[in-house]
Amino acid sequence: ISVVNFEGNLAGTPYGSSYVSAPKTMMEALDAAGVDLVQLSNSQTVANGILGIRDTLQSIRQAGMLGVGAYADKKTAEEMAFVLNKNKVSLCQAKDVIRDKILENFI
User: Fold this and answer.
1) What digits encode the pLDDT tens for the residues 29-67?
2) pLDDT tens digits for range 9-35
3) Within a 10 A sphere around the Cβ of 39, how many other Cβ atoms?
4) Cα–Cα distance for residue pair 11/103, rounded to 1 Å
5) Could you write out the DSSP letters of every residue in 63-86?
6) What angle do CA 27, 93, 37 make, to 5 degrees?
7) What proportions of the chain, in percent to the nearest 5, are helix, strand and coil?
8) Over 50: is that where the pLDDT of 2 sits?
9) Strand positions, DSSP E, the chain
10) Is 3 helix (H, G, I), strand (E, B) or coil?
11) 75 CB neighbour count, 10 Å cutoff
12) Is 31 buried (19+), middle (13-18) or exposed (0-12) by CB count in 10 A?
């Protein structure tokens, strides 16, 4: 398994490090490079809120990879769990800015 830690999201323009947003073609390039799993558990993933997370996860899936470490709703979180050595695994990250919104959706 080839894993990459993606420190950003695919929330659309403007692109660049100031906005922590990259073009959706980045996921196609990662897939072409042989990446299997994109780890999103970091503060940059949530920089553009729930819509940024949703767009990023959708782009990862469309490129044929698995995204883990961030989710936008309970259904997505359950879909992101994966089996590794017969153990069900899921990664999550919560950022202070949106933690209350996440928690109210899952508790």
Assistant:
1) 999 999 988 988 777 777 777 788 888 888 999 999 988
2) 887 777 776 667 888 888 999 999 999
3) 18
4) 22
5) TT-EEES--SSHHHHHHH-EEETT
6) 30
7) 40, 15, 40
8) yes
9) 3-5, 37-39, 66-68, 82-84, 87-89
10) strand
11) 9
12) middle
What token pair was written down for 69? 């470490």
Which tokens in the block code for residue 2? 């080839």
DSSP code for 21 = B
Cβ–Cβ < 8 Å for 46, 98: yes
What is the chain's length?
A: 107
Per-residue pLDDT of 79-89, as tens digits, reads 666 666 677 76
Cis previous bond, 14, omega within 30: yes
